[in-house]
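Hello support,

Our group uses your service weekly, and this is the first time we've seen a run hang past the timeout. The protein is DUF4190 domain-containing protein. I'm not sure whether the cause is the sequence or the server load. Input pasted verbatim:
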Amino acid sequence: MLELNFATSMNDAMSDTMIKENPFSSQPTTSAFTEESTYQAVCKSAVASAIFAVLGLSAFLAQMFMLLPILGIVFALLALKAIRAYPDELVGKGAAKFGLLLSAVCLIGSGAMHSFIYATEVPEGYRRISFAELKPSSRGTDAQGFPKRAAELDGEKVFIKGYVRPPSGKQYGLKSFIMVGDFGDCCFGGDPAITDVVAIKIQSDDTVNYGYGLRRIGGTFRLNPSTAASDEEEIPRVFYEIEADHVR
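Update from on-call engineer: The timeout came from a worker crash unrelated to the input. Re-ran successfully.
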């Protein structure tokens, strides 16, 4: 009888061990439930907000990049809303707050800086103009077919901002170059219209190097009815020219 009881106890113990340790058992253990219930995913919007916030620092270099901190703020607010709604499933509140704070600093700081530059960048005695004013429009043209605005500016001191179109070969110490108003035409092989370019001829000792940065040019505007020859093969002639004495 004693031997029978001992054998029965051993069988029961082995059965319990096999149930607990059987890796093929279809019944999940309590620890598995615990691990699954505590799993949290990183909120993608929080990560995006942090990335756009860092990229938003470039807004201090050019106004066109001010869209980046705006996106950083939008993604940060979306992330905080999602994390608040699903606190047990999502993490990333710290990244979202970082993205929100840095994006706000970039947006407000760059906006204030560019506003100050805009208010003070035009030298005294110069008139601010834009490339849009030089395009043919519904305002009409003069007897020679030029925009009336361009004809009115002939001989005036003007101030204009744009990009240096890469010349053929020489890229440093430029005394004359073609300026365009669009970043794509400048740096990505665009095909600007003849009324979208201005020939710049520097009259001072200043020179310009080709680069992606925005240039600020001041000087006397000239309208060339018969067009003037250009050094660039891509743009064989130009209607507008500025004899520059202010280069930044």
